[in-house]
Amino acid sequence: MATTDLTADRFNETVTGNDIVLIDFWASWCGPCRAFAPTYEASSDQHPDVVFAKVDTEAEQELAAAAEIRSIPTLMAFKKGKLVFNQAGALPPAALEQLIQQVKEFDVDAAVQEQADTKEA
């Protein structure tokens, strides 16, 4: 599966309508972004069950601001509509693979319940 370009119009629908979504915030002038792109693309081919989206921060400045992007590349991971990872910097292939496995294994429902229980206490 190839990566998909994500715009503000489709952001919420994409994040909430898919089980796992990775989003790469990037810009064409960013060297580390360009260096990370082939790693991200290759990973998308290995994980057809994960949505690999890209947000061009130049074209989608309001979306980048709403996501509080301070530096690029920034990678975010969502599971069941919940943000579970947010980090600036390009990841090497092994680290990206490890992140994807951790997101797949992460029990977001238990984490949400635990958070709710903590607030009630």
TrEMBL record:
- The site feature described as Deprotonates C-terminal active site Cys is recorded at 24
Residue stretches spanning the membrane: none
Q: Does the keyword Metal-binding apply?
A: no
List, from the UniProt record, the residues annotated as the active site of this protein.
30, 33
**A GO term, aspect molecular function:** protein-disulfide reductase activity
Q: Where is this site: Contributes to redox potential value?
A: 31-32
Q: Where is the Thioredoxin domain?
A: 1-105
Keyword Electron transport appears in the UniProt entry? yes
- List the keywords (alphabetical): Disulfide bond, Electron transport, Oxidoreductase, Redox-active center, Transport
Q: List the disulfide bonds.
A: 30-33
Q: Which GO terms describe its cellular component?
A: cytosol
Protein family: Belongs to the thioredoxin family.
Role of this protein: Participates in various redox reactions through the reversible oxidation of its active center dithiol to a disulfide and catalyzes dithiol-disulfide exchange reactions.
> Do you know which PANTHER family this protein is assigned to?
GEO12009P1 (PTHR45663), THIOREDOXIN 2 (PTHR45663:SF40)
Q: What is this protein called?
A: Thioredoxin
Q: Native species of this protein?
A: Mycolicibacterium chitae
Q: What is the lineage of its organism?
A: Bacteria, Bacillati, Actinomycetota, Actinomycetes, Mycobacteriales
